[in-house]
User: Which sequence fits this backbone?
């Protein structure tokens, strides 16, 4: 029994000694893009990216029509390739700065209705089609292949990673999806149910670590070395008058802060590695006896 206890202590010490914490903060994305079908001339260089809902247009346009993609290469600060099961997310916070727009605001997820859309600003992961990934897509790859009015062809799309499927939630009304964002944006001093005028205000997204889909997405992303997040909202598009939907500063904006990402991550050894280390410590202890 004593030797078993020593072995357990050695394994615990070895595991604890090898766990490493990493904090990484990014003051702008590596790649960002207004992910909108008619943004053809400046896909990765436009200073403002908006998000809005297309309205009820059967067979045309995704419901979440205008999206804002942000990708952060993390491999230089948080080691990649350790195996997704060996990453623990301690905290993850994304921010975006409002550039323009007066719009209805909710500080909790609001799916609204197909007729009117919702009023929350939502953060999702990003999924990719056609064998692409965040590295290959960058910020200036083709939005999609086909007519820009088509549904389901965008190469990068908002995903809530439901059951690890990486499903596309761009057409949540059409498909009748129950969607769970990774986070809902909050604006300091703003009251849910009120109207907000942008004026450089900061939107903060604290990623919900009780959401297994969000956590699974983050650890898979860290293992691959890049985290790609998409801001989206269901504020109805308006053809005339002031924008009733939010616009966000990209990293190209000359005056306003770019989106940011802060991560606190723990990397633990793989179970096999921990067992080997624990056995080695146990042998060393026995030799000293």
Assistant:
């Amino acid at each position: 029994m004593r030797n078993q206890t020593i072995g357990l202590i050695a394994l615990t010490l070895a595991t604890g000694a090898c766990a490493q914490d990493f904090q990484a903060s990014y003051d702008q994305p590596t790649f960002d893009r207004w992910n909108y079908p008619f943004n053809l001339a400046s896909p990765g260089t436009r200073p403002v990216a908006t998000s809005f809902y297309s309205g009820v247009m059967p067979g045309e346009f995704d419901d979440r029509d205008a999206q804002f993609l942000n990708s952060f290469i993390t491999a230089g600060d948080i080691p990649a390739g350790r195996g997704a099961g060996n990453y623990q997310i301690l905290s993850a916070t994304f921010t975006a700065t409002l550039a323009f727009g007066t719009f209805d605001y909710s500080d909790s997820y609001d799916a609204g209705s197909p007729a009117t859309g919702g009023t929350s600003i939502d953060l999702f992961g990003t999924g990719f089609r056609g064998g692409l990934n965040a590295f290959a897509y960058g910020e200036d790859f083709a939005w999609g292949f086909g007519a820009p009015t088509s549904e389901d062809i965008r190469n990068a799309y908002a995903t809530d990673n439901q059951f690890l499927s990486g499903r596309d939630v761009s057409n949540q009304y059409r498909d009748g999806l129950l969607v769970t964002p990774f986070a809902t944006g909050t604006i300091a001093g703003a009251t849910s149910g009120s109207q907000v005028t942008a004026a450089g205000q900061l939107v903060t997204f604290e990623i919900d670590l009780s959401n297994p889909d969000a956590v699974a997405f983050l650890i898979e992303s860290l293992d691959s070395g890049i985290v790609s997040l998409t801001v989206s909202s269901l504020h109805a598009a308006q053809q005339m008058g002031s924008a009733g939907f939010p616009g966000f500063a990209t990293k190209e904006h000359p005056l306003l802060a770019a989106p940011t990402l802060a991560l606190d991550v723990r990397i633990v050894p793989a179970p096999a590695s921990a067992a080997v280390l624990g056995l080695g410590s146990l042998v060393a202890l026995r030799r000293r006896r």
